[in-house]
Design a protein that fits this description.
The chain is α/β, with parallel strands linked by helices and 421 residues long. It contains 14 helices and 24 strands. The chain has a four-stranded mixed sheet with strand order 22-23-1-24. A four-stranded mixed sheet has the order 2-15-17-16. Strands 4-5-3-14 form a four-stranded mixed sheet.
Length: 421
C-alpha cells in the first residue's frame, strides 16, 4: 500500500495549477443520463472517484470515453440498458446516489443501492428520496436498495429541504429538468458546484433560474440535448494548496484560483495574518514573517466556511500563536485527523463538534494514519512544516480527491515522495 513521506523543508515558492472540481464532475457526469445526445466535459480532474463514476455509468449502459490524459470525458447514453446501480460500485462512493434523479426522470424507474456508512458521519439519503417523492415518484426501500418509480413520468412540484444538502439539491435539480411543469426547490444548497451543474444543464436545453440562491425554479422540458461543458475549478483543492505557503512560509501562486469560490476561507486567512491577492492567472498566497494568528472557525454551507477545508485549516492552526476554536456543523464525526495531529505534537482538545487548538512552536514528524480524504491531506500539510519526517499511511483516501499531490508540492520546493510497499 502506498505511503507519502514528507520532510519539513522551509518556505515554498512557485506556482501550482488547480484542477477541475471533483464535486462538480461527480454531479455533471450523471447528467449524461438525462439525454440521448452526447455530453462532453472538459477540464475534468483525474481522480479515482471519477473512475468509479465512469464505471457506474458504463454499468448502466452509458458510454464514457476519457481523452487527453483524462482531462476530457466524452459521454453518451443514447440508451440506458440497465436501471440498477449495483452495491458493489455504490459502496465505493456515496456520490453514486446522483444517478437516481436522472434515471428516474428519463426512464420513470430506477433501482439504486443505498450507499451505506461513512467515516465522517451517518450521511443518510432521506432528503434525496423526499425530493423524488415531491416530484411524484413512489419510493420503496428493499434489500438495501432504493426502488423508485414514476410510471407517468415525474411532475413538477415544491421540494422544500429541512436542512441544506448539496447532493439532494443536485438530484432534485437534475430530475426536475424533465418533470412536467414547474418545480421550486426551497432551501437549496448554493455551492459553486450546483451553479456549475445548472449552467451545464442549461447548455443541454434545461430551463433553470436561481442557482446560487436558496430558491431554484425549473421549468420541465420534454427532452434535453447534448453539450460541451468545462468543469469549474476545484475550490477545495485550491484552498488546500493555499494553506501550503501559509503553513510553511513563502509565496505561491495558485493558477486558475478564483476569489469568489473561497471568500469565507480567505477572510479567515486574512485574520490569521496570511496575505491573499488576485493575479492575472489566479490567486497568490504569501506568509512572510511572524507566526500565524489563532482564529475561530465554524463550518457552514456555502457561502460559509467549507467543511471540506476544516481539517486542512486545523493543520495550520496547530502552530498558530494562541488558541483557536473550530466548530464542525455539517458532519458529526469529522475530527479524526485530530489524534493524528496530536501524534505530531499538536495540542488539540475535542468535545463533540468542537475542537480547541492551542498553537505550539513547531510540530514533529511521525508516522500517521489517513482516515478520510480531507484528513489525509491535512496530515501532509502538517508534515510540510514539521521537524523531521512524517509518513502518511493509507493514501488511497487522498487519490480520491487530489491528483499529483507529490508533483504539485515538490514543484514549489516541498520534500515529498510517494513510496509503495
Ligand atoms: C457533498 O456531500 C460533498 N460531496 C462533500 O464533500 C461535502 O462535504 C458536502 O457536500 C458538504 O459540503 C460531493 O459533492 C460528492 P450534504 P453530500 O448532502 O452531498 C445531511 C469531500 O471531501 N443529509 O450537503 O453528501 C448529511 O448527513 C466530500 O469532497 C441528510 O441528513 O453532503 C450532512 O450532515 C466529503 N440527509 C448534511 O446533510 C440527506 O438525504 C450535509 O450533507 C442528505 C444529507
Amino acid at each position: 500500500m502506498d505511503r507519502i513521506v514528507v520532510r519539513g523543508n522551509g518556505p515554498l515558492n512557485g506556482q501550482i495549477p488547480i484542477a477541475g472540481a471533483k464535486n462538480a464532475c461527480l454531479t455533471l457526469m450523471p447528467a449524461t443520463l438525462l439525454s440521448e445526445e452526447p455530453l462532453t466535459l472538459t477540464n475534468a480532474p483525474r481522480l479515482s472517484d471519477i473512475a468509479t463514476m465512469t464505471q457506474l455509468l458504463q454499468s448502466l449502459g452509458a458510454e464514457v470515453t476519457s481523452m487527453q490524459r483524462g482531462k476530457v470525458l466524452a459521454m453518451s447514453s443514447h440508451s440506458v440498458s440497465n436501471l440498477t446501480a449495483d452495491y458493489d460500485i455504490v459502496r465505493k462512493m456515496r456520490a453514486s446516489i446522483l444517478v437516481l434523479g436522472p434515471m428516474l426522470a428519463r426512464e420513470g424507474h430506477a433501482v439504486v443501492s443505498l450507499p451505506g456508512g461513512c467515516a465522517i458521519g451517518a450521511r443518510p439519503v432521506d432528503l434525496h428520496l423526499r425530493a423524488m417523492e415531491a416530484l411524484g415518484a413512489e419510493m420503496d426501500l428493499r434489500d438495501g436498495y432504493v426502488h423508485a418509480k414514476a410510471p407517468g413520468g415525474l411532475k413538477g412540484g415544491v421540494v422544500e429541504f429541512p436542512l441544506v444538502s448539496v447532493g439532494a439539491t443536485e438530484n432534485a435539480l437534475m430530475a426536475a429538468t424533465l418533470a412536467k411543469g414547474t418545480t421550486v426547490i426551497k432551501n437549496a444548497a448554493r455551492e459553486p458546484e450546483i451553479v456549475d451543474l445548472a449552467i451545464c444543464l442549461r447548455r443541454m436545453g434545461a430551463q433553470i433560474e436561481g442557482e446560487g440562491t436558496s430558491t431554484i425554479t425549473v421549468q420541465g422540458v420534454d427532452r434535453l440535448g447534448g453539450a460541451t461543458h468545462p468543469v469549474v475549478v476545484d475550490r477545495i483543492e485550491l484552498g488546500t494548496y493555499m494553506l501550503a505557503p501559509a503553513i510553511c512560509g513563502g509565496e505561491v501562486e495558485l493558477l486558475g484560483g478564483r476569489m469568489d469560490l473561497v471568500g469565507a476561507f480567505c477572510e479567515k486567512l486574512d485574520a490569521a495574518a496570511i496575505s491573499v491577492s488576485e493575479t492575472d492567472s489566479g490567486l497568490k498566497v504569501a506568509r512572510k514573517n511572524g507566526r500565524v494568528h489563532a482564529v475561530d472557525v465554524t463550518t457552514e454551507p456555502f457561502p460559509g466556511f467549507p467543511t471540506d477545508l476544516q481539517a486542512q485549516m486545523m493543520a495550520l492552526l496547530c502552530t498558530a500563536e494562541g488558541t483557536s476554536v473550530l466548530e464542525e456543523k455539517i458532519f458529526e464525526n469529522r475530527f479524526m485527523h485530530a489524534p493524528e495531529l496530536q501524534r505530531m505534537g499538536a495540542r488539540i482538545e475535542v468535545h463533540g463538534g468542537t475542537a480547541k487548538v492551542t498553537g505550539v512552536e513547531r510540530l514533529r514528524g511521525a508516522p500517521v494514519m489517513a482516515t478520510d480524504l480531507r484528513a489525509s491531506v491535512s496530515l501532509i500539510l502538517a508534515g510540510l512544516a514539521a521537524e523531521g519526517e512524517t509518513v502518511v499511511n493509507r493514501v488511497y483516501h487522498l487519490d480520491r480527491g487530489y491528483e499529483k499531490v507529490e508533483q504539485k508540492l515538490s514543484a514549489v520546493g516541498a520534500h515529498i515522495e510517494r513510496v509503495s510497499d
